[in-house]
Design brief:
With 710 residues, this protein is α+β, with helices and mostly antiparallel strands. It folds into 4 domains: 108 residues, no CATH class; 139 residues, no CATH class; 163 residues; 126 residues, no CATH class. The strands form 3 sheets. Strands 11, 12, 13, 14, 15, 16, 17, 18 and 19 form a 9-stranded antiparallel sheet that branches. The longest helix is centred in the middle third of the chain and has 60 residues. The radius of gyration is 32 Å and the shape is globular.
């Protein structure tokens, strides 16, 4: 029997949210993080001070702790209007409580007020005008600041060394981290950041298992801060560089406010990242980031879809052999049932309840003193297990079950009728207790199996998420800043905020979904830009790898992209900035690939080339249609004239990518579902929106139809 499940943890503690703020990879102004921490601390203290569960419930309900906890999970990305609304709710409801509770609740209200006040009150145009009028003055890096970063680095290094001395890593960490050179520079009176750079790069080893541990990531963060402090303290051009960057920021903000786009947002993000690195204009950084700090991908799945799949059938036979109160019992039990899935409500983690409804029929033979008693047992049971998912991965709770057993006497055989009569009397007398005992045995058996088999069933998924998604992204320094998953009885929802030091996320809310939507993806252009910089920057894509990826996805490989005898090999090395970018505007989708090196056979060109295709988005009666506008655009970035070799390379790439980006992509009949959901029908497109930086695709379960996207 295969099962999976999940659990909603009761008694959620606000205190654990304090750890979230230490995971945010982007520098935040102290007043903001302190305000959020203060809200978490005071609200938890209010709950902890209550001695009765009734009082806890009254506070959580009356002061809307569900909303409070949701805002804390959003952290620095929470919207000012939502925080202010909750603050006003506290003002309205606090008088309803006792004097002692009012005093503590007022501290939470004050912390919420501090949170509101720490957020920017200006929009981007006002910030731009302020920069033009009076930009923040350059703040020289002081010796005290360098010493502070060095102290933090030494502390993290000491912690890492203690961890390494325990012998828990399997790679050659000294070679990986260029340890000898780093030690030389750290021991120098005038350390050279350029010589320490290979060591810093070593902490980002994407494929080096173990570097995702905090013992390494903490050093990485501290080393980077120290190197930046040393560089800008010793560089006589720091002030001039800063003034140039402020001018660039003004220009970038003008470009964005005049024409919001993927590229203009990217320009602003690069400059904000530089200011962060230089330790300058903290308040401006925080204000601008706030406007670009909304989640940039949303996923949505309904209970209607989850319920539509065929139920998993369970049919197991088990031999029985046990001793009950000195009586040897043997027999056989056959359990038949079905497994279904149900979303469980949780504002902490997306939660799914796996339910087994079954009936076990057993034939039991008990022998003692020459008497053989044969009985039949019918046990009806329901077992449930909860499985949850958030950014840390999957978690489960022990399975729980209820069972009811009915025992019927089949036959009794003994040496005499007296023996048989006594045995029958005992059976009838003990039947109620034996039924309870049998039910308890059934509960223990089914929960033990469910726990073991769910872990077995999920082992590949859990391992795959940790080893192929979460840990590699942490090692690259690109794990999402925030992963927020929740569930109601009707829906599972997941949103993520993917951004980094030189990146910005979404400045707008996603498009609204239709009611009753079964599956939806809402994707902001910043997610693609930010995520691919993490996973594809500097990576080489060969012709063979591309063909393999297309084959794995079941896509047709055009003749121009096929490899083999008589075909010249080619490759692209992706740019470190915007290797793949998209633009979702005006019911159009632009997809662009940017490379920094291109190879065609033996010819290699080390120039930046941008390859882009523009599609018009259409919704038809049969689904989605993407119609390409003109040919694929191949441009050498920053070049006004091309050499003969560059013209030849442009021709090659135009042919290949005109084949790759098909001129007409048509979806017919919806998207077929896999596995147990195959017979439920296809997903039929309901909404398609490409505008204001967002792509939204929403689907409802519909009748099964012919062919999928071709």
């Amino acid at each position: 029997m295969q099962r999976c499940g999940l659990n909603m943890v009761a008694g959620f503690s606000l205190g654990i949210l304090l750890g979230v703020f230490s995971l945010l990879g982007v520098t935040r102004a102290d007043d903001l993080t302190e305000a959020i921490s203060r809200v978490a601390e005071t609200s938890q203290a209010l709950i902890d001070a209550q001695k009765k569960e009734k009082a806890v419930t009254a506070i959580r309900t009356g002061l809307d702790y569900d909303t409070l906890e949701g805002l804390l999970r959003q952290g620095v990305s929470a919207r000012k209007a939502d925080i202010a609304k909750l603050r006003d709710h506290f003002i309205e409801k606090i008088p309803d409580f006792s004097k002692k509770t009012r005093l503590s609740a007022e501290k939470v209200r004050q912390a919420l007020e501090q949170w509101v006040q720490s957020l920017p009150s200006q929009d981007l145009k006002q910030i731009l005008e302020q920069l033009k009028k009076e930009a923040p003055a350059f703040t020289p890096i002081t010796d005290a600041h360098v010493s502070q970063t060095r102290t933090a680095l030494d502390a993290s290094l000491a912690n890492m060394k203690a961890f390494l001395e325990a012998g828990e890593v399997e790679f050659d960490w000294k070679e990986q981290l260029h340890w000898d050179v780093l030690q030389q520079e750290l021991g120098s009176e005038k350390p050279n950041p350029a010589r320490m750079q290979p060591s810093l790069n070593g902490f980002y080893g994407a494929d080096v298992v173990g570097l995702e541990r905090p013992e390494f990531t903490n050093v990485r963060t501290a080393l980077r801060a120290y190197m930046n402090a040393v560089f800008f303290k010793s560089n006589p051009n720091s002030k001039a560089m800063y003034e140039t960057q402020i001018k660039n920021l003004i220009t970038a903000l003008e470009n964005y406010t005049d024409h919001a786009s993927n590229d203009t947002a990217w320009q602003v993000g690069r400059i904000i990242g530089w200011l962060d690195r230089a330790g300058q204009a903290d308040n401006i950084q925080q204000q601008i980031r706030y406007h670009f700090y909304q989640p940039n991908i949303y996923l949505h799945v309904s209970q209607n879809l989850i319920s539509a799949g065929e139920l998993m059938e369970v049919d197991e036979t088990q031999e029985l052999a046990m001793t009950v109160k000195g009586l040897q019992i043997k027999g056989e039990a056959r359990m038949r049932g079905q497994i279904s899935f149900q979303i469980a409500e949780s504002q902490e983690k997306a939660t799914l309840r796996v339910i087994l409804d079954g009936t076990a029929i057993s034939r039991n033979v008990a022998e003692k003193s020459g008497v053989t008693v044969v009985s039949r047992g019918t046990t009806t049971m329901r077992a449930t297990k909860l499985v949850a998912f958030d950014g840390d991965g999957f978690s489960t709770e022990p399975a729980q079950a209820q069972a009811t057993t009915k025992l019927e006497l089949d036959s009794i055989e003994g040496p005499t009728s007296t023996h048989e009569s006594i045995a029958k009397t005992k059976f009838i007398k003990m039947r109620s207790q034996n039924e309870k005992d049998a039910s308890a045995v059934a509960v223990e058996s089914v929960t033990t199996k469910m726990d073991a088999q769910v872990l077995e069933l999920l082992s590949n998924v859990i391992e795959g998420y940790q080893n192929k998604v979460r840990n590699p992204l942490i090692r690259r320094g690109g794990f999402p800043v925030n992963v927020n998953s929740t569930s109601t009885e009707e829906y599972i929802r997941l949103n993520m905020l993917q951004t980094g030091r030189y990146q910005l996320a979404s400045a707008t809310e996603p498009p609204a979904l239709n009611k009753g939507t079964d599956v939806a993806l809402r994707l902001h252009e910043s997610f693609v830009r930010n995520f691919t910089e993490v996973v594809l920057g500097g990576v080489e894509l060969t012709d063979e790898k591309l063909v393999q990826h297309m084959t794995d996805l079941g896509a047709e490989v055009p003749e121009e992209l096929k490899t083999g005898k008589g075909k010249k090999s080619w490759a692209i090395t992706f740019s470190n900035t915007q290797p793949i970018s998209v633009s979702f505007r005006d019911n159009q989708i632009e997809i662009a690939i940017q490379g920094k090196q291109f190879r065609d056979g033996a010819k290699v060109i080390n120039d930046r080339i941008r390859i882009a295709a523009l599609y018009t988005v259409l919704k038809t009666d049969e689904g989605m249609r993407l119609r390409r506008q003109g040919d694929v655009d191949v441009q050498f970035v920053g070049k006004t004239s091309l050499t003969v070799g560059q013209v030849a390379m442009k021709t090659v790439m135009s042919k290949k990518f005109n084949a790759f980006f098909k001129d007409d992509i048509i979806g017919k009949g919806g998207i077929p579902l896999p596995g147990n959901w195959a017979s439920a029908g296809n997903l039929i497109l309901q909404q398609i929106v490409s505008d204001n930086g967002w792509l939204m695709l929403s689907y409802n379960l519909g009748k099964r139809a012919t062919p999928a996207i071709k």
